[in-house]
Amino acid sequence: MATRIAVVTGGNKGIGLAIVKALCKDFKGTVYLTARDAGRGQEAVESLSSEGLKPMFQQLDINDINSITAAATYFKDKYGGVDVLINNAGIAFKVADTAPFAVQAEVTLKTNFFATRDMLTHFLPIIKAGGRVVNVSSFVSVRTLNLCSPALQQRFRSEDITEDELVQLMQQFVDLTKKNEHKQGGWPEMAYGVSKTGLTTLSMILARQLSKERPNDKILLNACCPGWVRTDMAGPKAPKSPEEGAITPVYLALLPPGATEPHGKFVSDKEVQVW
Ligand code: NAP
Questions:
Q1: What is the rounded distance in angstroms from the CA atom of residue 243 to the CA atom of residue 14?
Q2: 91, 141, 191, 250: which one has the fewest Cβ atoms less than 10 Å from its Cβ?
Q3: Omega of the bond prior to 242 within 30 degrees of 0, cis?
Q4: For the segment 156-189, what is each residue's pLDDT rounded down to a tens digit?
Q5: d(CA 114, CA 132)
């Protein structure tokens, strides 16, 4: 039987590292810790090997399309594809950051929405039958959705929104922030939140697409929230450890063979949430 492969983005620290750790223990196959910086990635692999865990390493900067396509080609050629993909890499400006809102919007959406979408564009075709795809979004995606205009909320919740329409809406938000017109456009002043609302919506769109185009492959794709977790991103006051933050993403990654749900949902604490 072919080796089963799990790939985690942003695996060198925080929740991503905890996900890699948990998968090394519970996933029956080879786990790839990926990181944009090879030095930080290798260091993380070494730290795990001192605990007796043996992930492999692959460089993967989701903001670099060449890095994405090189990694996808590598996994396709070496293993015939990927069984589990966890899109965990993400960024957030600190509350105290003084960068203009328009800059924060552009930079945050670039990684959390557009680059994660690039990952999905290039990796979904190589996800094997029975595969699991997990997009690490946030509870902030729901809060932000509820702060959007009724018209935007209707689109994000609709079953007929297309990937193209979503991409246009995310781009519209970025463009409006540059003219300081996003509020008139129905958007809240939340760059991270909008990026994650986009990611949760994208997850729902792609799950519907998989069900339609590859029904026999029974791939399950979901978005989730890890909870509020003590990492460099969220700071030391958050209640959950990275290991606790990894629980829901890993649960979705290891949904047993034959499972039919959840699929196309937003999941927190292992429970499907209202969108
Ligand atoms: P973190 O400690 O800041 O780790 C973020 C990881 O993403 C790092 O490994 C970082 O790599 C990587 N990354 C950033 N940009 C990347 C890129 N272009 N290509 C590849 N990797 C990239 O944050 P975290 O708290 O573990 O967050 C992990 C995920 O959980 C994020 O998607 C975040 O939005 C989400 N989340 C976190 C919380 C929370 O309370 N912590 C709550 C809800 C959702 P470098 O080390 O190279 O920067």
A1: 9
A2: 91
A3: no
A4: 999 999 999 999 999 999 999 999 999 999 999 9
A5: 21
Ligand 1, atom 19, lies closest to the CA of: 61
Residues linked to residue 272 through DSSP beta bridges, in sequence order:
267
CA dist 231 and 244 (Å) reads 12
Structure tokens at 170: 């995310």
Give catalytic residues, as residue numbers. 192
* Helix, strand, or coil (residue 136): strand
- Token look-up 């990927």 returns 82
Q: What does the pLDDT look like over 229-260, one tens digit per residue?
A: 999 999 999 999 999 999 999 999 999 999 99
Does the CA dihedral 26-16-166-144 come out positive or negative? positive
**Ligand 1 atom closest to the CA of 36, numbered from 1:** 20
| Ligand 1 environment, Cβ below 6 A | 9-10, 12-16, 35-37, 40, 61-63, 88-92, 111, 115, 136, 138, 225-226, 228-229, 231-234, 238
- The pTM of this model reads 0.98
